[in-house]
Amino acid sequence: MLEKITGIKTQAESEVIKNLSDLEFFRIKYLSKKGLVSLLFDDFRNVPPEHKKEIGQGLNILKQEIQEKYNQLKVVLESKEEKSSLNDLTRPGYPISSGSRHPISIVRSEIIDVFARLGFLVSEGPEIEDDDHVFSRLNFAPEHPARDMQDTFYISRISEEDSNPDDILLRTHTSSVQVRVMQNQQPPFRTISPGRVFRNEAISARAHCIFHQVEGLYIDENVSFADLKQTLLYFARELFGKETQIRLRPSYFPFTEPSAEMDVSCRLCGGKGCNVCKYTGWLEVLGCGMVHPKVLEACNIDSKKYTGFAFGMGIERIAMLKYHVNDLRLYFENDIRFLDQFKTSL
Ligand code: PHE
After folding, report:
1. What is the largest CA-CA distance in the chain?
2. β pairing state of 154-156 and 256-265
3. Residue 31 and residue 208: Cα distance in Å, rounded?
4. Domain limits of the chain?
5. 310 lines ligand 1 (CB under 6 A)
6. Is-contact 6 13, C-beta < 8 A?
7. Is the distance from the beta carbon of residue 330 to the nearest atom of ligand 1 less than 6 Å?
8. In sequence order, which residues have a C-beta less than 8 Å from that of residue 237 and are 6 or more positions away?
9. Under CATH, which number does the domain 103-121+185-200+210-345 receive?
10. Residue 258: CB partners within 8 Å, gap ≥ 6?
11. 262 lines ligand 1 (CB under 6 A)
12. 177-203, pLDDT tens digit by residue?
């Protein structure tokens, strides 16, 4: 047995290995499951007990030495091969896979583009806000349920029982940005505020605690509901196609009066009814209305002289309708297989 070990040792030492394929051959010959070293280990069972210690040690040393030779050669040969391939200037380059924009960014840019054509400027504001900008100046009554802990992530609260304009929270809508615009600028203005918003909701296919909105505001003399309707019709047709119809349903928001919700005709069935529009022919896309005079006054705008309209939409919702995505969570998981489907020049 000892002789066999020395035999294999000399044999392995004398092997000439020039490249990686020689090395692989070497590995299979000595180190694989059926290799020479493993076969010796199999024989070890038949060694009489009094020789086991000596032979066992010999075997282990042999295995270590061969493994070491293999490891060293691997490092050397791999770097050699890499170098020689780098020297070959005619070798085709590695393909670089190009990234893609996130679907939410694509749709956000599209929405901004449509309103930019109508003269709307983009305004941004903080995600961490106070109650004053998110609720109070937008005419939310102190006991309005939207302020409740169930919807709003509070960062600090003055009192657990009552809301206070100084409470610090994560904004639940980007209407807060519009309050800042109204406070700091003189009408007329047209502005849209895209951004992230936060609501304390359980995460499901249809709801998430973080999502994105684009809200719009137009204030001038003699702005009417007809202007709102025409603006939204233009927007819907630019985004969803020339044939798109819109429908406004009466609704309620504290900061607009009258308020409405807008539906667009279902693109999939052309309004005839399908499972996407739940056989109604319509899909709900946004909330809107004429800015409440109380909101104008709270932001130091003369409500006798000026009127305006506002609207707000969730970008995820629009993207879901555009791309027929039926689970909101896909937008946040960043699975490359999902994201790769949105290659675009935008
Ligand atoms: N701020 C509302 C929301 O987050 C949307 C909205 C904006 C509705 C402007 C009407 C007017 O749901």
Report:
1. 109
2. unpaired
3. 54
4. 2-83, 103-121+185-200+210-345
5. yes
6. no
7. no
8. 243, 244
9. 3.30.930.10
10. 225, 250, 289, 290
11. no
12. 999 999 999 999 999 999 999 999 999
